[in-house]
User: Which sequence fits this backbone?
């Protein structure tokens, strides 16, 4: 059972089950909020990855296909996966943000 100490007199009192019920409800609400936010982050990540993929242009030339980021235009690359971005490209910034969130 939870207890709390009075800051004025130092007396410790036991809190009833009602308090533990309130705490349990608060914890459940916070867990629900965290779950909803994690789901939103997953959707944002999926949206950003689709948008990033869409923003890689495929050019056909005499030597075959080349790929270029339409955001930063950092150059032409042999494959979509090998496209490099500038440090300030929105796709680079998105990737850094995902790394900070512990995602790929
Ligand atoms: Zn780019």
Assistant:
């Amino acid at each position: 059972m939870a207890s709390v100490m009075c800051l004025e007199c130092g007396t410790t009192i036991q809190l009833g089950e009602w308090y533990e019920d309130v705490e349990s409800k608060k914890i459940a609400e916070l867990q629900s909020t965290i779950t909803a936010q994690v789901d939103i982050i997953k959707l944002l990540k999926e949206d950003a990855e689709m948008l990033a993929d869409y923003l890689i242009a495929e050019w056909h030339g005499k030597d075959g296909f080349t790929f270029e980021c339409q955001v930063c235009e950092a150059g032409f690359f042999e494959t979509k996966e090998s496209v490099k971005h500038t440090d300030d490209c929105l796709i680079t910034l998105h990737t850094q943000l995902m790394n900070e969130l512990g995602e790929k």
